[in-house]
Structure formats: structure tokens, C-alpha cells
Predict the structure.
Amino acid sequence: RKSRHSAAGVRRAARRESISCPMEGTHARGKAAIRRQACGARPGEKGVSCPMEGTHARGKQPPFGGRRAIISWKGCRRTAHKKGFGEVIMAVFEGAGVAIVTPMKANGEVNFDKFAEILDFQIENGTDSIIVCGTTGESSTLTHEEHIECIRFAVQHVKGRVPVVAGTGSNCTETAIYLSRHARDDGADAVLLVTPYYNKATQKGLIGHFTAVANAIDIPVILYNVPSRTGCNILPETAAYMGKNVENIVGIKEASGNIKQIVQLAHACEGALDIYSGNDDHIVPVLSLGGKGVISVLSNVAPRQTHDIVAKYMAGDTKGSLELQLKYLPLIEALFSEVNPIPAKAAMNMMGMDVGEPRMPLTPMEEAHAEVLRAELEKVGLL
């Protein structure tokens, strides 16, 4: 069977510089899956390693001089699982990815200087992935030109230090394809596709929509289920069908807030989709169901702490992970006391990050809620 998706950085670097990876043919889309015959070792198998060990890992350059591969062999051994006939499915990332805000100037324009600062702040404090132009990034009030430029800027500034996942969803399939192709061409490592909102597709329509977008690009797709915002719920069996039948649909951000549904999702998927919590108060519960991490609003103000919740769990320190989850629960609740990203931006401004106000129709945070938020930031030592 074919590989679910490629090591995107390896492929792009090879295209750009007309050079090849020593593992050429095993990473590329449309080639045979990475398996024992290809590299002599099955990632994840005890006691064996890939001959490329260490060269694709985050923070190291591959030997052929190209851009760092985002999906590392080190990560493969930790997170890969097999399905079908030896197929290896690699997580886009494992850990805490920040659903990053889009900073604005006083006149409402995107503040790219400030954007660079907060991208660096995130990476320096342990964030495992940048998710740009999602709900928290106010994608719904960005023009198409701004949307594309924010993704391009993030990719260029991050420079392969962590994966960049681009929010490119829309309730218009052609628009989602348009944005996703731009994200791919500008170097995003994956796209995040929210369910169509307002027009509320049927389950058959969801399969058709997501499949059409996924087939239009050759990078990984993470589905985004947030029915409280979209009025449209991806049912577990629908998500599982796409994970098992669409080559590059590889993950789902589950923000339904329904633990029973997430249990059913994990059961139905049988490992075909990587599950990320879309709610900061559900990180540990989702990890306990085999989740790979979280796409987080909390990370905007507490990136190291959010990373540690996942890292401790993955390292076997479930007690330490749970303690952190519970410690930050009051702050998480304050960050959602008004519609996201109003409180997130308010908190960042309180911390001196100067990310500006959200765009209309969102408004600055009400003072009563802001007082509670400030108090919670102080309690955990962020102010």
C-alpha cells in the first residue's frame, strides 16, 4: 500500500534543490510505504532503527543539505503505527500545538512584526507545532490575501523549527481547495480543515467536501470538528471512514467537548486517525484514549506548561500530567469566559505582548471577566 503521507520537508527540499534524500522513494508520495524492505527497519519495532536515525529529527539538518524534515524518524519510532500491509502512518506532530492568535495593529491591520515575536516566543518555550489562521487566529475576518500572507509569513519565519499547520477550511469547497493549495505551495506542513459552517453539510456531504480538498493537495490533512461553532458534527463513523479511505487525511482535532463521542471515535478509527484534543480542559482525557496531543488556546499564554502536560503523560508521568491539567483548569475556564479569542488576546496584552484587539464583530473583553482572567494569570505566576 502507499504511504499515507511523506516527510514534507524532505520532499520539498529535494524538489527545490534537485537533490535526493538517501531514503529517496520511501518518503515520496505515491511510492511504496516505509517498511522493512525499504529501510531495513520497521519504525517502532523494538531493537531496530532507521539508517537515517537522527538526521530527520527536529533541530538537525538532513545529510543532503536540504530543509529539516518536519516528521522525524525519531518521532516515527515514538508515534508511528502500522495499518494493513505494513503501512506506516506518521503523526504530523505529537505534543502541544498552539492555535496562535493573529496580532493586529491599532488600525486593524495584521501586525507582522509582533507575529514574528510571538512565533519565536512559542518555539523558545517548547511549543511542538504552530497552527496558524484557525479559529483563534480570526480566520473568519481575514481577507483571502491576509489569510495566505499569514500562512506564508509563519512558514518563512518558523524555518522548519516546528511543523506549521495552516487553517484553510471554508464552507465553500472551492475556497478551501484554493486556500489549501496556497498553503501547500507556501510550505505548510499540513492543513487544518474545519467542517463547513452555516450551510451544515450532511455526513455524505462532509465526506465529499473533505475528500475533494484532500485530493487537491499532497500534504497531510487534519480534520477539525467543532460543532458548537459550525452547527455541524463529524460523527465518529464518518471520521473513521475518511481516515481509512483517504490517503492524506491523517488526523482530527476533536473539539466537540463530548468525551463519549471521542471514545467512540477512537474505537471506530482503529488507529487510522491521530486524535488531538481541541479543548484545553480535555488534554489528559484525550491522551488516555490514545490521543497525540492538543491544539491549544492555553498555549498562547502558557506554552511550556501546556507542552509539559502532554510530555509528562507521554513519558509515563500520568500523575504529573494530571496535576498540571488541574492546576491550569481555572485559567482555562477564564480563557473561555467570552468567545475565543477575546480572552486569549486580553491575557496576552496583560502579559505585555501587545497583540491588539480582535476584529469586529468581536469586541474587547468585558471588565468583569477581565478581572477574573487577570487574577487567574497571577495565581499561576504568569503575571
User: Anything to note?
Assistant: The chain has 16 helices and ten strands. The radius of gyration is 20 Å. Residues 144-158 form the longest helix (15 residues).
